[in-house]
Amino acid sequence: MAVHIGKMIKDELERQERTVTWFADKLSCSRANIYNIFERDNIDIVLLVRISRILRRNFLKELAEEMVLPSNKL
Fold first, then answer.
1. Residues of the domain holding 25
2. Does residue 53 fall inside a structural domain?
3. CATH number at residue 16
4. Helices 59-66 and 5-15 meet at what angle, rounded to 10?
């Protein structure tokens, strides 16, 4: 199952009852950019670290747990 990171971020923002304006201020960007982030199914890792810190949720760990890597057969 594919993970949609933008939806995860939007859902967390809503769970915390935070506004898009609050999030844009914390991330130092425009509200339009926040809505763009919500639409993304992939994201730059540096940006994801910043978002994780702001929302106090480790999205990196969650995404890593979702990854299925093939077994190494040596």
1. 5-66
2. yes
3. 1.10.260.40
4. 140
How big is the CA angle at 4 (ends 64 and 50), to the nearest 5 degrees? 65
- φ and ψ at residue 44, rounded to 5 degrees: -60, 135
Confidence (pTM):
0.87
The span from the CA of 8 to the CA of 73, in Å, is 34
What distance lies between CA 28 and its chain's CA centroid?
Answer: 16
Share of the chain above pLDDT 70, in %: 89
Comparing CA positions, the residue from 39, 37, 3, 43 lying closest to residue 23 is: 37
Number of domains the chain is built from: 1
Separation in Å, CA 66 to CA 32, 48, 59, 62: 29, 16, 11, 6
